[in-house]
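Hey all, sorry for the wall of text incoming. These are the two entities for the joint prediction.
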Amino acid sequence: MHTKFLDKNERKQVGFDYIINKLKVITPYGQQEKKNIKVFKRDEKEKLIREYDYIELTIEIIEENKEILRDIEEILFKIKDIRNSVKRCKNFNILDEIELYEVKIFSLLNEELRRLIEQLGLSIKDITLKSLDRVIDLLDPEGRRIPTFQIYESYSEKLVEIRKQKCSIEKKIYLEVDEKNIKELKQARLNIIILEKDEELKIKEVISNKLEKEIEKIENNIKSIGRFDFLIAKAKLAIEYKGRKPSIKEKTVMEFDKIFNPEILDILTSMGENFTSTSVNIKSGTTIITGANMGGKSVTLKTIALNLLMGMMGFFIFAKKAAFPILDFIYFVSDDLQSVSKGLSTFGAEIIKLKKIIEDVKEGEGFISLDEFARGTNPIEGSYIVESVSKYLNKFSSISLIATHYDGVAKEDMEHYQVVGLKNVDFGLLKHRINMDKSNSVEIIQNYMDYNLEKIPYNHKVPKDALNISILLGLDEDVIRLTKKYYDKEE
Amino acid sequence: MISDLIENFKTISIIGMGENTGKTTTLNYILSETGDLYTFGLTSIGRDGEEYDSITFTGKPQIYVERGTYIATAKQTFFNSDITKEIIATTGINTPMGEIIIAKALNGGYVDLAGPSINIQMKKICSQMLNMGCQKILIDGALNRKTQASPSVSDGTILTTGAALSMNIDETVDKTIFTVRLLSTMAEEDKEILTIIKSIMDKSRIGFIYRDKTFKTLEVLTSLESSKEIVENIDDTTHVVIKGVISDKLIEDIMSSTKKHKNVSFIVEDGTKLFLRSSTYDKFKKMGGIFKVVKPITIIGVTSNPVSPYGYEYDNNELLDKLRAGINLPVFNIMDGNAY
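and here's what came out:
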């Protein structure tokens, strides 16, 4: 399926699935909302901003009313899926006892929830629980307000009569000793049971029809409960990762202050590693990112793509501050193995995607991230392609972020960022530390690596960290010496 | 008296040696004899659709409950019951016959039962009914059904047997005595070993515990076909843990290719997992093998039905005498209520 906002596989790659799994809705109705998560479109700016406001409001509520919230969640856990019964009721089917029981339980819980929401003073337009008093009266004609249901005798005088007969015949069976008489009595009982079932069915029909008149309210409440459940989950997610409300720009620029990717944060934290967030401002046209191997260029691209997607879906952003416009598309292209398995070479798969990007870029404004594009083909041709694609995309108002190893891709009219990498590290000291603890060389380098991006002149050379890392990881000295000769020639 | 028998047990399962041995009659007997002493909760170990059909169409006596009794049963059977019912809870436990519903009988009547088929769900249902105020739970159990739930979920088990098993009274008696032995298989009592067994059963079908209390597990699909793997790995072993069934073939295969099972405990979840002929069982034990279970089944009594629906019957007293001679438990004929 062609999607303009990352396909299934790309969403997983950038860490979207991870976040969605962390989004804990409680009710089946919240589940429905979660399943229907969609990107807000350009003409839905107000709606999107309102969604952010709702999350903000919900966060406040969660933090200020912990006890009420706990009560609310307790109720949410009890709420069952009655959508099928609602549908059947709307189609004038007769609901059975179990369905009526479930509608009754739903209505009782609804009233509890309504009171709690009133206590919160919550004013969210989408969350307005209507009173289901009439439904409760209908399903609890004796006003006992306990969470059970039966076809009550108060529904029909005839039923009272039938059940009286049933009872008296059962007493007779109990006292009778003669087998033949018992058999006759049992037959008589069976006839009464048929009458009882008939009468019960009639009552169920009447109740179902009366219920149909209330169904709109029930449906409204189902929707509201789903929205509320979903908003609580979103707010909790924001609280967990200290997410922030983004601002929506009219102009095509993006500003991210200390943006991060929760999946990577959690992995590194669980390993006891440090984690660096990134700050970057990008505008229309092409921005080039270069930098060391192991320097986290891919992570930066994934993090930006993820946060843009989440933001446009009405979530808070994982950053200290973030601003971006509503976009028509988000692309993330990297040479992952998944597309290779479809029978295309990595490069082939990249080109197919690029074709789509170029179609879209002509028609709308979006975000394009290319991670080491054309890495799989020969480096000379690859660099030609990356250079031309960068130049081409630079003409459009879409934002293109291109991470590359190749030198000379960045031009005067493009932004150029570089991963700080090992630039500021005392190389001798690092080498010494690795010599002391050779088995952990990779981890040590990662610890010294500065993942921050810095803006540099367009014609700044790609750093020669590849050689440094080869030395640090203890590549054979003869090979290093031979390699160094090439560097000398270059200079 | 049956009331003495069940007095000390909260959840009681009733399992039959075979069809028509009087399981339902026993259930009804308990309900009618002690119905005014306790509030009962009733359920059954679930059955699949096929078995359901065969049961409904043979016109067997259904279970009769008194007013005030709770039942936990799947939606389909719930609607089959002719009591006037009050729905107390929907459980969220789904079976092929629908969600399990707990209801209370507002008057006496016949109920059709199909409960959960997984131990964990059965436990949940029982504790839910106890919380609702039931004092005793009766579980219509299963012995030969392919369900995961077993009588080990209950505190006590009543076994029903009868003439329907065989025309030959001695064969029926021998089978019954042997079944009681299998079901009463001793539990492993070493707490440390039990912890190891649990961790083995959590992730594998077969495991071995060694003298130094280390263990290993094997990746096999079923325990039935793994005699070769067991023989290869039995060495300095104190326990062989089998999650699933131990069959005649498995034990015969092991006995024919090794002697290392001497003094080794073969552990199964409970006695219903031992699907063995008495000859195999005795031979294995004679060669020094041991069977033990994780969850013991407490058999509290046996009920016998001397009448077979196939048109013959045993002498009632002969049956009772022979059973009592071989089983050190109360034996009743539920047809006349004559115990001891």
